[in-house]
Design goal:
Elements lengths: L5 H12 L3 H8 L3 H8 L7 H10 L10 E2 L5 E4 L5 E2 L1
Antiparallel strand pairs: 1-2, 2-3
């Protein structure tokens, strides 16, 4: 199963809404350069800016249950999408 990153989800939502980067940045009150860099994976945003983007698109963070391996041990996600037991 493919895991989507937040910037990919937000880019899809932006395309569905038909907004340009400039229009989205103006709507949520962020600098254009910061918005563009984040949505293109070239930079980060602080939590309050991410919350503005998520609120604009009605997105929320949901904690998923830990995945179990065949041996019954929970798998923990590593940065970069790698899993370890």
């Amino acid at each position: 199963m493919r895991t989507w990153g937040l910037s990919e989800i937000l880019q899809q939502k932006m395309a569905e809404e038909g907004l340009t980067y400039r229009e989205l940045a103006a709507k949520i009150g962020l600098p254009l350069c910061s918005t563009w860099r984040f949505l293109n994976g070239r930079g980060g945003l602080n939590i309050s800016s991410i919350e503005k983007l998520m609120t604009h698109y009605g997105l929320a963070v949901v904690e998923l249950p830990a995945r179990r391996s065949r041996r019954g041990k929970a798998k923990v996600a590593e940065p970069g999408g790698q899993r370890r037991s």
